[in-house]
Every structure is written in structure tokens, then in C-alpha cells.
Amino acid sequence: MDLEGKLKNLDLEFNRDGLFQDGIMEEDLVDVTQFFDDSASSLQTKTIIKEPNFNLFEGTHSLEVENKKLDSTSIQLTPAEANFECNALYGSDEKHQLSYVVGILDRLVRSVVCWLNDYQTLPTTVLSCRYVEHLLLESEKKGQLVFLHTGHPLFDQILCSGIYGVCYFARFVQRLLKAGVIFEEEDLNFNGMGLNFLSYVEDGNSILSLLQESIRIASLCSDSEVLIHILKLLIHLVSIEKCLDEFSTDVSHLNALIEEATYLSQQPQLSNLEIPAGSFSIGIQRRLSNQFPPKSLIIPPRNYEGFIVMAQDLKKVLQVDNANTMMEIMQFANFFNKFEQRHVLARALFPLFLIRDNRTILGRYTLSEFTHGHLLEFSLMCTMEVDFPPEITEQPLMEAANVLFEWYQNTSQNTSRYRQGYNRQLLLWDSLQAQIEAMEVEWLSKDSDAAAIDYVEMKEGEEPTPLLPYTSWVYAMKVRAMIEFILKGFDLQVYKPFETYTMYWYTYYLAHQWEICLKKVQKFVDSKINAIHGLNKKVKKSKSGEKRELLKAQYRFAMDNHMGQLQVNKRFLQYLIVESSIFKSLSIAQVFQFGILTSYGLIDNKSPAKNNFTTNELLYNLRMKPFCSIGVPELLPYELMESTFKEFVPDEPMFTIKLNKAMECLHKELNESKLNVEHILKCIQGGDNNGVLVTATRLVKSEATKFYEGVKTSIETLETNSKKIQSTLGSKRSPSLREKYAVQLQFCEGGSSFFPVLSLTSHTSKKSHINQK
Amino acid sequence: MIIYKPLDLENLSQFKQIKKLIDADLSEPYSIYVYRYFLNRWPELAYLAFDQDGNEPEIPIGCVVCKSESHRGRRMRGYIGMLAVESGYRGQGIAKTLVTKSIEKMAKDGCDEIMLETEVENQIALNLYENMGFIRMKRMFRYYLNEGDAYKLILPLTEKSCIRTTFLQDFTFDPNLIIN
Ligand SMILES: CC(C)(COP(=O)(O)OP(=O)(O)OC[C@H]1O[C@@H](n2cnc3c(N)ncnc32)[C@H](O)[C@@H]1OP(=O)(O)O)[C@@H](O)C(=O)NCCC(=O)NCCS
């Protein structure tokens, strides 16, 4: 009910019976006016009277009477908007009426795109349509769908069915939002203004029948082609919920949606159609329960392409169903939302489609199978013969499943949340590692079965080390998360140029730790593979028939059941090792570049702050705060960062020689990383049967290619940039350079945002404020 | 000459002017409650700048509004809630002085860090704070009602700022009581 209506009901004369129906006599009531006035007059201006739970958060989200920016009752409507009558028949003749209905539906449908693709609010887009408000209110009163009474089926049937199509789709969006994967306000606004979005409608079928009936009626009218296409588009929107209801991977509706959107985007007459005056307005913000400040109406542009983006992104998500291995699922998650942020509905759908309410993954793996699968495809394959005791495999595996789910959920978050997600995950991986490692080590030291576990010499002559397959996997996941956390900071422009040294120096350290771990696991895989080959040799050497048969059977079994997977593991690990090497090379190249620029006095690893509030050590420690509690890899102290920094800055004596040496190292690293990226790219193209690397990117081939192509472009840009710097600065240092040039972190077109370029810019004016972007 | 004074809470015209200064530039409209929330509780953390030689020496031409509270009971966090300088007075170091004064006060009161949020597009504010030592801790997606991203910035004052709250000890007393 609108506010004015409510106030009216409060009027004593108007509603005498209602107020006193509980048997309270009018004479029992006390007039508090005087009391109220007295109390109010003794209030100080600064006094706040509030409900105890009203806090700052509430305050920043509250309305304020008579504050134009915050008072939605101050919204001014034109008479046509204020008095819009939904049950009136608009249009002087049939043609005109049809044009109005098409105009209204066209605008409404385009408003959906503004709402979802452009992150606009619901009230300024979909709910700005007076018909939506009217029909939802009236239907809720009846608990069923109601229709307009204009006396013309174009409005009473066709327009209504279109409106309900949009509302039903909105209901699906609301459901996705409530699943808690994406964030209200941040990713999506669902300020429903207290309206009930068809909760009384059992399923989409009734809406689909309405729309189909409308298409039938529309096809009887002349010139109704566009209208029919809009109605069809709505049918496909309504059908999207099948992805979630039935986990259907049938993409025919999504393809049809793309087709309809393509057709509609090519109709120039749309978007310019006249609509009945007042049929779209911000009136709902004034009329209905509104907790948000007034916002202006969004006039949607021609944006049918928005549906194509939505449908394509949803189709992409459904492809995860084709994954054959855990690595493929993981790589899918890793890449599908990495280079470009996917449509919000696709991002919301992904974790729900993957990790289902019935506690299965993709409907085919239990939680423990899923986690165990990840381990097998990484490290556990090497110790298959050993039965790990349940204290290692059960409880910790459940914990591991939870952290792994966090990882998966995080991959579909918006780009800013994504980094924060890693920040949180680090703690989880770290405590999981502590827990699992303690158990694995204890078991190794106590249990005699454990003796069967493999120990491998990492280097010749060294004491053999045990694999600790569980711990190794968790550790590798953790270190990878740390690297991603840091590098994503470059993408989000969280670091200033002066921090570049520290962050890449740290990335190098982490990538190195990661590489050590991967190589260790790979060594175990190798030793396992060799052991199987060794069996064959033993078969050949063995003389006794019985023993020979036994060995032969063992060999066969291992070849049939283990060898294939071991080879895959080995190649997947090799891919990760190549990746770690790329991260190392690029990070150290950035470090060299930074050192070179420092030697010219153009940048420093210190904050430019000129006051004494803080210190560089505190700033460093704050930067490393996410890692401060992590045991391994241990946090590198500030002093170490400082002392190594000096080593990267060429100085006198023999500045030129040192400079050339640094340049040489830089180019060597860039060359190496380029070869490595090209290697990965080739293997992605060739597919996983290439015999060298398994990248497991079959389902995200184009996304993964784009990512590594981006890295390649960055490498090339780093190379040209470094040459440009050298030719600009020469080999002579002078204090005047600082007045001439500044250093910026710049993204290069098509490049990886994880590796922006430290580029020289000239100061345009004496006092430039953009010296550090 | 520009002079700087803490807020006089009883002076309503100061309150109104603060509101006017802030409302003029900030994308996010604040209700009176929000102003009162900060100013009533932390009047000593609101500094105003006055132009003594101007036409209205009583009316502030710039202000900074802050608060300081314990963060999860483990760390004292100062927070710069609002900052604005009247357009005709910009570029003279007034904001820098206002912010410096408020940070000095919060540091003296025992804050371990100073935090604030600012829009990614607000290059002037970013320059201002980053030149004072603040660093960007995280980026927030479509943070404000006008739908731009924002950064959360922190200036660490003590080592406590650099340790996750999970690994800090609880305060044995409620520092909020002592400071206010
Ligand atoms: C931000 C604001 C308060 C700055 O006020 P000011 O008094 O002009 O600022 P100052 O003169 O003290 O300048 C301080 C620093 O800000 C930066 N800065 C100021 N003007 C700048 C400009 N035009 N371009 C780039 N940087 C600028 C500089 O880093 C400057 O330090 P420097 O002179 O040592 O280089 C003012 O512009 C304002 O009121 N803006 C609107 C409200 C707002 O954005 N508030 C901040 C919200 S968090």
C-alpha cells in the first residue's frame, strides 16, 4: 500500500472502528501532544533519537525527509506519470496499439540488459515500467496472475504475458542471488521494492503457455513479426532456469536466445518506438516501500547484444559438464572468468552448477571422490599402493574439500572479490596444511605400513625424503594462491610503482618455492614410472616361472592401471613447472628493470611520503600482512628485501658494466619466458595428446590461449620498453633526469594485466600530479 | 591566512557548513544521522579550516571528519570519513594540513592505523593520501552508489596494523572507553 494511503488510514475519523476494535475506549486514551511538545523542546539540536540497532551502516543506507538527494517522496512526477492508468487502452487504432505494445515490451526487455549487464538498479530499469508494478501488485493480492482489462487482447493478453515473462525471469535471478554466490549491490541489485516476484506461480510452464498463446494471437495480427520475436526471446529467457532446475546442459534455448537477440538487434525501428506517456517512470520509488535514495531513470540504449553476451557466458559455464578429469574441471574454473569478467548470471550459475545441492559435483562425484581425484591427479598417484589410514584420509579430506570449494567458488567472483577470496583462502590452506602435515609426519614416524611409502633422493647423495602427498598438494595450492593474490594486485592497480620491486621480488620467491614443490612431486612420479619399467626388466631377468608370472601380472597391472595416469600427471606437473618458470622469469625481469631505473634515480622502493607517520618497514609489513601468519614459505623480512634490493641496482664503480650485465640478465629472462609461453601455447593448441605437456585446457582453449597470448604480448612489450628506456637514458646518470622523467606502471594493449610495464613518462609541467599512477 | 580549529559541536552553523562542503562534492549523499554519528562522538577528530581574511571568517572553508575505534577488539583503527575543501581554496595545501592534523591526533590517541576509502577515479584524493604514506589494500567492486570502484587505503602507524586480527590479542580493556 502506498504511503499516503497508509497515512489516510491513520486518521481517527476515517478508521474509527479499526482503531478501537480491541475494545479500547476512546476516553481511555491520553492526549500526549503537550508531553511530546515539551520533550521535543528540551532536545538539543545534536541529539540523536534512534532505535538501538540503527548504526552507521543503516545510517549510510537510510532515507531522509526533505533532503532532496535522500527523500524518495520528493520525487516529482509528471501528471501523465502520476496518473497513469494501466487498464486504459492506449493507441487510436489497431496499428497504433500494436506499436505501443511493441514499444513497451521492447523497452522493458532492453531494461533487463541495463539491469544485469550494466549493473543498474531494478527500480530504475525493469520496475520503472508501470505495468510491471501494477500487475505484480494486483496478482499478489489475488495470489495468482491477473490480467489487464483494456478490452483488447494486445494489452490484456500479449502485453501481460510479456510482462510476466520478464518478472518470472527476474524471479530466477533473485533465486541465483539468494544462493549467496554473488553479492547484492556489488554484482547485482535486486531492490524489489517489496514486490512479490511471482512466488505463487508454481513453475515456468504456466508463463511459457501464456507466451505461446500470445505468439499465436500475435501471429493473427499483421505487422506483428517483431512482437513475435520479442515474445520468443522471453520464452528463452524463462527457460534459462532449466540450467539450474534440471542441470540441463541442453543449450538449444540459449542458442535460440542468441538468435532472437541477433534478430532484434538488427531492427532499426526498435528503440525509437513511441510508448504511452507515463508508462515508464521513477514513480515506483515514490509509491512503494523504498529503502534507497532516489535514482534517476535509466533509458536503455539499443542493447539486445547484451542477451547474446549473457547466453554465451551461460553456455560456457555449462561446458564444464564435459570435463573428463579433475584437472580439466580445475583448469576450466581457472580460466573461464580470468581474462574477462563473465556475465553476472554465468558467474552465479557456475558454482551452483558445479557443486550441487545434493552434495555431488556435476552430479557424478561425491565430495570425497572429487577431492581425492584432485590429489590423485597431482601427487597421490605416486603412493597408490599404500593404504593411508583413515585419520589422514577422512577428516582432513573433508576439510580439504571445503577449502577446495572455496577455491572453486572464488573463481567466479567479480574481479575485486577474486583477490580478496585468495586473501581469505590463504589462512584456510595454511591451517589445512598444518593439520595434514602433522598427521602425515606422525604416521610416517609411527606406523610400520608407512615404511612402504616411497622415499626419493632429491639430489644424489642426499637423504631420501618422503613425498607427503597430501601435504604437498595443499602446499602447492597454497603457494599458487599466494602468487595469484600478489599478481592480481597488479591487475587491480593496487600497487604504486615504488612497490613494484617488492611485489615482483616476492613473486619470484614464491614461484621458486612452488617450482621446488612441483619438481619434487614430479621426481616421485618419475621414480614410480621407473619402478614400473623396472618391473619389466625384472620379468625378463626372472628365471623361475612362477615368480616370473607374478611379476608379469604386476607389471601388466601397473601398465594398465597406473602408467597412463602417471604419464598424465608428469606432463601436467611439467606444464605447471613451465608456468612457474614463466612467473619467475618475468618477475625477476621486472626486478632488473626496476633496479636499472633506480640506478638513474628515477624510482625507489621507498614510499614517496614526506612525513613521519609511518616507516618503509611498516609499509612492507602491511603489504605482506596476508602472509604474516604463514609458516612455510616463511615470510621474508624487510631487511632481506632491502639488502637484496641493493644488489639489483647497478652503481659505481663500473656502473656501465654492471648496467649492461643487468640488461643482459633482463633480456635473457624475457627470452626464456617467451620460449616457455610459446611452448605452452603450442601445447594448448595441440591438445593434451601432444606428448609433452598436459594443460587440461581442452574446454577453455580460447580463454587459456588468450591468457598466455596476453603474457606473450607483455613479454614483448617489456622487451621494447626496456630498450626504449635504455636509448632514452643512455649510460650516463644525471640528477636532472628525475626532473625530466617519471615512472608509471602501464598496461599494454592485449597484454597480461599481471605484468604491467614500468615505463618512462616525461613530466609535462613542473608540478605534475600524475607522476605515479 | 588560513587557520585550523577542531569542531565546536555546539555551533550549528559549523555543522551546516560541514554538511554543505561535503554534500557538494561527494557522490554518496549522507543523511544528517551520518554527520551526527561522526561529529557527536568524535568532535575532537573533526578539524575545520577558516579563511581569516575572507568575507566570512566564521564559516569553515574546509573540513575533515574522522573517527577512531577498536577494530574487532584487537587493534585501534582511525578512519577518515569525510574530507572536502571549498573549490576556490583548493590546491593550497589546506586538505593536507587538515588530514595531517587529524592523523596526528589519532596517532596520539593510540591508533595503530588510519583507514579510508576513496573512489578509484578520485586521483586528487589518491595523490593526497598516497603522498602521506597510505597504501591501497584492496579494490572494491562498484562500491559507491554511483557505481565506481573504490580503494581501501591504510596508513600503518604501529606493527599491529601489519598483523591479521586473527593473530592479535584481544584488548584487555575497551580502548573506546578511554579515548572518548
Ligand atoms: C581532495 C581535496 C580535499 C583536496 O583539497 P586541497 O586543499 O585542494 O588539497 P591540497 O592543496 O592540500 O593538496 C594536497 C595533495 O593533494 C593532491 N592534489 C591536490 N590537488 C590536485 C590536483 N588538482 N591534481 C592532482 N593532485 C592534486 C596533491 O598530491 C597535493 O599534494 P602536493 O601539492 O604536495 O602534490 C579537494 O579537492 C576536495 O574537496 N575534493 C572534493 C571532495 C573529495 O574528493 N574528498 C576526498 C574524498 S575521500
UniProtKB/TrEMBL annotation, chain A:
Domain NAA35-like N-terminal, first and last residues per copy: 46-203
Subcellular locations according to the entry: Cytoplasm
Protein name: ZYRO0D12408p
One cellular component (GO) term of this entry: NatC complex
Keywords tagged on the record: Cytoplasm
Pfam families per the UniProt record, alphabetical: Mak10, TPR_NAA35
Organism: Zygosaccharomyces rouxii (strain ATCC 2623 / CBS 732 / NBRC 1130 / NCYC 568 / NRRL Y-229)
Predominant location: cytoplasm
Family: Belongs to the MAK10 family.
Residues covered by the NAA35-like TPR repeats domain: 317-647
InterPro entries found in the cross-reference section: NAA35-like_N, Naa35_N, TPR_NAA35
Automatic annotation (TrEMBL), chain B:
Top-level taxon: Eukaryota
Cross-referenced CDD domains: NAT_SF
GO MF annotation terms: inositol hexakisphosphate binding; protein-N-terminal amino-acid acetyltransferase activity
Pfam family, one: Acetyltransf_1
PROSITE patterns for this protein: GNAT
Domain called N-acetyltransferase: residue spans: 2-158
Regions crossing the membrane: none
InterPro entries for the chain: Acyl_CoA_acyltransferase (IPR016181), GNAT_dom (IPR000182), NAA30-like (IPR044542)
Signal peptide: none
Any single Gene Ontology cellular-component annotation: NatC complex
Protein family per UniProt: Belongs to the acetyltransferase family. MAK3 subfamily.
Name by which UniProt lists this protein: N-acetyltransferase domain-containing protein
Natural source organism: Zygosaccharomyces rouxii
Lineage, opening ranks: Eukaryota, Fungi, Dikarya, Ascomycota, Saccharomycotina
